Q: What sequence folds into this?
């Protein structure tokens, strides 16, 4: 059932992508803002309580709905699964930005590419050259693909099923939104959300990196993972980007010691890196790197789907 749930959800999303301003996401944003306004008194334990309430507000109804659907029969359970996966996946949330940036760079329209990247990542892109625009677009695409697709795949495969997928996406959102560097008092309040998502994403991040290695240049991906992942302040992002860059033969990470942050519109923050003396392998990012990224992501998606299919068959036979 899990394989068909993911397959049908991906198919529906390709035909009718879920809008970023849909009522479910708007409700999550409103509730997160309300909980922060009510509980944020500048202390860590307030953040823990607000995080638990937010997770419970979404996971408990999904768990009850899924339990009822199982009692009603396999078809009802499949429908609930497809609905939850459709709402938690975000494969098409950002693809229009990435595709438009790719077309703009291929046409030599650097100004449009910078404008699209600024709209997508919410950062200042003025003065960026083609290589930097391509690099940030690739980095943002890899991280958002992991957070919006592969991480969801992992958690829906666990015994928690759709509840796990909902928990993952809500935890990712809270880790991002409650740690935005806009207000000083958020630091303590959002600390638990960040720590909780670190552990929730610990296995999925490594599985995504492994998938990139398997479907790309395996030796370079593993070498980059082992030697360069620690240069990013965010460990999970360092693993994903170093493995992804190695798999494609592309040098990811800023070429200088201090870099601005890359903040995807629908994913967690990509932290700056600390450059050491040894340079990462691969060539600098260019417009061709975006096409390589598309191929890598689709191959990794097919690998995940094959894994889900095999696990579903094994479960059915067992």
A:
């Amino acid at each position: 059932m899990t394989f068909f749930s993911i397959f049908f959800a991906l198919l529906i999303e390709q035909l009718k992508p879920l809008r970023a301003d849909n009522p479910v996401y708007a409700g999550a944003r409103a509730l997160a803002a309300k909980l922060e306004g009510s509980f944020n008194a500048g202390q860590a334990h307030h953040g823990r309580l607000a995080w638990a309430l937010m997770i419970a507000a979404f996971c408990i109804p999904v768990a009850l709905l899924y339990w009822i659907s199982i009692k009603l029969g396999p078809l009802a359970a499949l429908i609930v699964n497809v609905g939850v996966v459709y709402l938690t996946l975000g494969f098409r949330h950002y693809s229009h930005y990435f595709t438009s940036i790719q077309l703009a760079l291929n046409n030599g329209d650097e100004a449009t590419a910078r404008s699209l990247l600024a709209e997508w990542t919410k950062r200042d892109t003025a003065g960026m050259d083609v290589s930097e625009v391509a690099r940030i677009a690739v980095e943002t695409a890899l991280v958002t693909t992991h957070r919006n697709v592969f991480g969801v795949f992992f958690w829906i495969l666990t015994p928690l099923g759709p509840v796990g997928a909902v928990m993952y996406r809500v935890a990712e959102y809270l880790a991002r939104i409650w740690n935005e560097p806009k207000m000083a008092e958020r630091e303590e309040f959002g600390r638990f959300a960040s720590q909780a998502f670190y552990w929730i994403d610990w296995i999925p991040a490594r599985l995504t990196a492994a998938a990139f290695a398997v479907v790309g240049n395996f030796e370079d991906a593993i070498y980059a993972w082992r030697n360069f992942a620690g240069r990013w302040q965010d460990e999970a992002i360092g693993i994903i980007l170093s493995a992804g860059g190695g798999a494609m033969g592309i040098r990811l990470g800023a070429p200088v010691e201090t870099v601005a942050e890359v903040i995807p519109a629908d994913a967690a923050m990509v932290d700056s890196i600390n450059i050491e003396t040894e340079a990462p392998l691969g060539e600098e990012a260019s417009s061709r790197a975006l096409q390589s990224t598309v191929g890598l992501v689709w191959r990794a998606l097919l690998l995940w789907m094959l894994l889900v299919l095999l696990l579903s068959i094994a479960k059915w036979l067992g």
